[in-house]
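Q: Give me the 3D complex with flavin-adenine dinucleotide.
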Amino acid sequence: MTAFSLEPAQLTWCDELRALAAERLRPLAEKGEPGRVNRALVAELGALGLLPRLFTSGALDLCLMRESLAHACTEAETALALQGLGAHPVHAHGTASQRARWLPRVSDGTAVAAFALSEPDAGSDAAALTLRAEPDTPAAPYTGGRVDGPSAWRLTGEKCWISNAPEADFYTVFARTTPGAGARGVTAFLVPADRPGLSGTPLDMLSPHPIGALAFDAVPVTADDVLGEPDRGFRVAMDTLNLFRPSVGAFAVGMAQAALDATLAHTSARDAFGGKLRDLQAVSHQVAEMALRTEAARLMVYAAATAYDAGAPDVPKRAAMAKLLATETAQYVVDRAVQLHGARALRRGHLLEHLYREVRAPRVYEGASEVQRGIVAKELYRPHRTPDATTEEAGS
Ligand SMILES: Cc1cc2nc3c(=O)[nH]c(=O)nc-3n(C[C@H](O)[C@H](O)[C@H](O)COP(=O)(O)OP(=O)(O)OC[C@H]3O[C@@H](n4cnc5c(N)ncnc54)[C@H](O)[C@@H]3O)c2cc1C
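A: Here is the predicted complex, encoded as structure tokens.
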């Protein structure tokens, strides 16, 4: 396999995933309540064997799943992605007992995961997060480094824009263990939803998406809840985002392809000026441009995912480029598709009305487009920087 052509078996798998999305997942998505976690849909993703693949496959397979599911069922795509985003830190950085407790349930869809990094005052600048993890055991105060004893913390503060909140069964929570230390003073905790002091509120979004705010009122956590090492949590967050960023691009490519396919069908069937819409060169050239940009984005996504799987050194730059190009491209393609469909695309319930709302958020989350440009620029200038330059780009 190269970054530029998929194997026949991968193409067949993508076809199967599109069919599953249309036939098995779309009906369940339609029965869900907008803006709420759809547990039947999550369970079906488990029953179909897709959730376990989050932990056994690489970045390219993740992209193929997201792109293919998005083509026919964005809700299923998002449910799959959120399980991965919330649980990847457990898979990659958790202890044996954390993994044994949660990953089988994430895989069969009986436990819903969430990734809680953003705060009301720390979005793109995630290293500015202020949710406090304060030592709770005077006998064994936290002094930095690895915690071996009964050390414990209380979490106090807020998280905002957390997908699957407040209905998730557990949260990967990033909290400040060392005040004033920026990215170097953040710890990742696995916080079960039933911890005392944890509450949440749903948020109503443009495109119905299960999402909410969380309030932490002295929520107790112990050393057993730490993911990775104290004060090293920002690395957990960045590793997760490096894996997921190309796959946000894949989600966008899946939506762009769905918009393009709908446009090909519509412009071939719609009578206009004594022929079909596609007979107008101004129309067919727009469709050609949509296809061109979609394919370019797809290739960049596959290349970034392949680089991740190969452990290439330039993953942050490639992941940022792929996410940036694909999400901006999908916005362009869906907008063009709306234009070429005319009024019908704007009617509630039309595929393009749905995609027009869905396509907007990925340009903001997991690092806004401007933040991706910042990452690309930082990586480009890395060889030219002085040794004491230590800033971290984030954007959850
Ligand atoms: C649907 C959805 C789901 C989400 N799910 C999650 C989740 O599961 N977990 C989670 O932790 N967060 C989640 N988020 C939050 C998301 O990650 C943040 O919205 C994002 O990081 C941007 O932060 P902000 O909204 O506070 O915008 P701000 O940080 O206030 O930025 C606003 C705008 O300022 C500009 N800007 C910001 N920084 C720069 C810069 N360095 N250079 C140039 N321009 C800049 C950009 O245009 C940006 O869009 C979700 C958001 C949405 C919309």
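A quick observation: Residues 233-269 form the longest helix (37 residues).
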